[in-house]
Amino acid sequence: MTAVALLFAIYMVRPSPFCILDEVDAPLDEGNINCFIRVLERFVNQSQFIIMTHNKRTIAKADVLYGVTMEERGVSKLVGVKLSAPAQPVTEAASNGGEHAPTQRRLALATR
Predict the structure, then answer these.
(1) Alpha-carbon torsion, ordered 84, 89, 95, 96, to 10 deg
(2) pLDDT value at position 95?
């Protein structure tokens, strides 16, 4: 966690347009994973992060997921998935005071 804290301290002084992190969250316990994710969310607006991880909580915060699969022995295939937040029903009030049927609004997570 000390190395990750030092990295983010450097980013506070001199941000970079992108950062590649390889399994930095692997040795962290659940409490530190939550702290890591909160700090990561703080820097996402100014930098793009490419993170290699197996941690489910870190993966859940991703905008785009890339992986490698091997459907046939010896043949690797790249797989990419763009993630977005689930649609939430939004109720809009009509001008006559009544309500319209709920509409669906899609919220997409942006990357830079």
Answers:
(1) 170
(2) 47
